[in-house]
Design brief:
The complex is a heterodimer of chains A (115) and B (360).
Chain A lengths: L8 E6 L5 E5 L4 E4 L1 H6 L27 E7 L3 E6 L7 E3 H6 L4 H5 L8
Antiparallel strand pairs in A: 1-2, 2-3, 4-5, 5-6
Chain B lengths: L6 H8 L17 E7 L2 E8 L7 H13 L6 E8 L19 E5 L7 H14 L4 E5 L7 H5 L6 E3 L3 E3 L2 E2 L2 E5 L14 H13 L8 E5 L6 H9 L5 E5 L3 H16 L4 E12 L6 E2 L6 H9 L3 E7 L1 H8 L4 H4 L4 H22 L6 E3 L1
Parallel strand pairs in B: 2-3, 4-10, 4-11, 5-9, 5-10, 11-12, 12-14
Antiparallel strand pairs in B: 1-2, 6-7, 8-9, 12-13
Helix pairs in contact in B: 3-11, 5-6
Chain lengths: 115, 360
């Protein structure tokens, strides 16, 4: 049972002052614009736990929101502390890979969607 | 003029020995240490990745045989040691810095003998020379103190640090130490998470090669918290052979896979019963089910433990079968399973995945 290299990060760092860069084990690099990553938060305060409806109001998130700190969660996810004070979201690696906004990934999305 | 023995020649000879689990030769795995060549006298140490290695003697004999064949070699001294490799953890493990491997023992269904298996695995690993801890995370029915025969509770120092009692060579912590016999734990999630953190961070585990964690049955708060709090080396799944247990065991496997915790394999408990009067074997729950499930799910099969009165009575008496009757086939079954668990841990830790770097 080998880990899927495309869903295992090798390095997580800053792309610039705002954006998050992930280098994956299969060599792919993803850059996540800060604000869209913040809006993609899947925590119970941002997404309804049963209906899956988005609860977060985009206008309440400052334009210049940026990550202050990133902590690993076990071996499957990261937790991001944002400059707007939000910190409850857990970003699973497999979901992050599916979310990769680069043109190649965007127009040929992977077959398996995250849960 | 006698042949001069070189280090390179000795290493070349040793390269012929392949680790059966890691599928690489023992030289490139870095097992060879402290080589000394003095004329025709060659000595070196083979450092294994676990004291629970089943091929220890075989390696030693092969190494001696291969090196003896080098021209000019008169005597060969092969020492065997072991150094358990730490889990390739993604986080610098600040909660339990001295613990090299955390191994949860889980099941889907309750009543499959998870605690008995956990206790005997821990004792087996300790008997083989590893430093072992056993954390009883089954807060609803903490049975490890009874199975291990712990009579003294932990000592609390500085109001916070918990010194775990050691029994049978294993350091033990359990919710059972903090409860009256008939008291029950009726907690919501956040309390459970807090307890897991305390059992990891506030207990003085010291340096351990393996911390075995006996989980409650199911796929709930405790399993999730454990996976989120620390990087786990890999989970051992215990199941009985019948379909209903295996179906639920699959859910436990799914939980670990979803949280990216490797599954070290499945142990089949209560695999069959041998009648004490007539010696006839009875497959009470069917047999070989876990072995087939392991193949289906593409996870290793770690061993089968028979259903035996002796295992049950030894657990009830607080003397695991490995201590009360070490020569019995039951003790050997546990020992064999423990060797396989240790081997799978070595495979996980040597498989090369370096930790994820977070530079932020």
């Amino acid at each position: 049972m080998d880990a899927d290299l495309s869903r295992t990060p090798e390095e997580i760092s800053r792309a610039n002052q705002h954006d998050v860069k992930i280098k994956w084990r299969d060599g792919h690099e993803s850059v996540y614009p800060a604000r869209s990553l913040r809006l993609a938060c899947a925590c119970a305060a941002c997404v309804h736990e049963f209906t899956g409806h988005t609860l977060i109001n985009p206008t309440s998130v400052p334009e210049g929101v940026r990550p202050l700190n990133i902590l690993p969660v076990g071996r499957y996810a990261i937790q991001i502390t944002w400059s707007d004070g939000h910190a409850t979201g857990i970003y699973a690696f497999d979901r992050l890979r599916v979310m990769c906004p680069c043109p190649v990934c965007k127009y040929s999305p992977p077959q398996v969607l995250p849960h | 003029m006698p042949d001069r023995v070189t280090e390179a020649a000795v290493l070349d000879a040793l390269r012929k020995i392949e680790d059966p689990d890691l599928h690489r030769d023992i030289v490139s795995l870095g097992f060879i240490k402290d080589m000394k060549i003095d004329g025709g006298k060659v000595s070196f140490t083979i450092e294994m990745t676990t004291p629970a290695c089943p091929v220890r003697e075989k390696f030693q004999a092969e190494a001696r045989a291969h090196v003896s064949q080098i021209p000019g070699v008169g005597s060969v001294d092969v020492r065997m040691t072991s150094q358990v490799r730490p889990s390739q953890s993604e986080i610098k493990n600040q909660l339990i810095p001295g613990v090299r491997n955390v191994v949860p023992v889980a099941s889907g269904k309750g009543g499959v003998g998870k605690s008995t298996v956990s206790a005997n695995l821990a004792v087996a690993l300790a008997q083989m020379g590893a430093r072992v801890g056993l954390m009883d995370a089954d807060i609803y029915g903490p049975s490890i103190p009874m199975i291990m025969g712990v009579t003294e509770g932990p000592e609390i120092v500085d109001d916070r640090r918990i010194i775990p009692p050691a029994q049978n060579g294993v350091k033990i912590i359990s919710m059972g130490f903090f409860l009256q016999e008939k008291e029950a734990v009726i907690w919501r999630g956040p309390m459970l998470i807090q307890m897991i953190r305390q059992f990891l961070g506030d207990v003085e585990w010291g340096d351990l090669d393996y911390l075995v964690v006996d989980l409650p049955p199911g796929t709930g708060d405790i399993q999730l918290s454990l996976c989120q709090t620390i990087p786990l080396t890999g989970a051992v799944i215990v199941s009985t052979p019948q379909d209903v247990a295996l179906k639920v065991a699959q859910k436990a496997i799914a939980l670990f896979q979803k949280l990216n915790c490797p599954v070290l394999g499945i142990i089949e408990n209560m695999s069959h019963y041998v009648c004490r009067k007539c010696g006839e074997r009875d497959d009470i729950f069917g047999s070989g089910g876990a072995r087939r499930a392991a193949v289906d799910l593409d996870v290793p099969f770690l061993g089968d433990i028979p259903l035996a009165t002796e295992i049950r009575t030894s657990a009830d008496d607080g003397r695991p079968i490995l201590l009360s009757d070490p020569d019995s086939p039951y003790a050997k079954a546990f020992l064999h399973a423990a060797e396989n668990v240790a081997a799978q841990i070595s495979i996980q830790n040597m498989s090369g995945a370096a930790p994820v770097k977070i530079t932020f």
